[in-house]
Amino acid sequence: MIGLYQSTGRVFANGGELKLNDPKSALEAGMAFVSEDRRGVGLLLDESIEMNIALTAMQVQGKFLRPGGISALRLADEGQIREHALQVIKDLDIRCTGPEQLVRRLSGGNQQKVCLARAFTMHPQVLWVSEPTRGIDVGAKQLVLDLLVDFNRKHGMTIIMTSSELAELRKICDRIVIVYRGQIAGVLPPDASDVEFGLIMAGKGVARKEAG
User: What are the pLDDT digits (tens) for 44-97?
Assistant: First the structure.
């Protein structure tokens, strides 16, 4: 749906059909994505923290831009970018030397926070998050999960998270969809028993029907 990989089928969002295989269309439809591969596709490693945070919003939504010398020209508003980055660094507790620090020099947990910061800056209606705590330490894992819950509650942002860590899903999700051999095997509430989860993940159970 985000368009990073070739897809087929039909997807509808907000009453309209989403154009597949077109990342810009997905972003314009109010979606954002945080990849598990933060060093491969999630970040511009040799760019600053502030540029990583602001770039997609600049390109897609026209944020952090100011008029240039001619009417058709718009330039990056460096003051606005810096102000926003400083606030985000504070809010997300990104441990760094400052907004100009290269992302490559951050720890894995802080790199993940920059990925989240870039997505949050878009203020998406739907945020897709893949394995958000992979490869980061225990303390940073909890901070990342807390941030996801916080943005869901404060901004009404729908978050769809894929993870191999069932305990994390049970801690923060309202519903858990189990996929088995490429098919949806069932949907369970987070407080379902270990037995129910185990049977469905093995392709042997029948999920409870949840209202809504």
Answer: 999 999 999 999 999 889 999 988 767 667 888 999 999 999 999 998 889 999
CATH 3.40.50.300 domain residues, the chain: 11-173
Q: Supply the CATH classification number for the domain 11-173.
A: 3.40.50.300
CA angle at 41 for the pair 40 and 43, rounded to the nearest 5°: 90
* Distance, CA of 49 to CA of 66 (rounded, Å): 20
Phi-psi region at 181: left, alpha or beta (left = phi > 0; alpha = psi -120 to 50): left
Q: Following CA atoms 98, 99, 104, 107 in sequence, which dihedral angle do they give, to the nearest 10 degrees?
A: 60
CA angle 11, 131, 62 (to 5 degrees): 60
pTM to 2 decimal places: 0.81
Cα dist. 158→17, 95, 125, 161, 164 in Å? 18, 27, 6, 10, 20
| Cβ atoms within 10 Å of 94's Cβ, excluding its own | 23
The SS3 call for residue 184 is strand
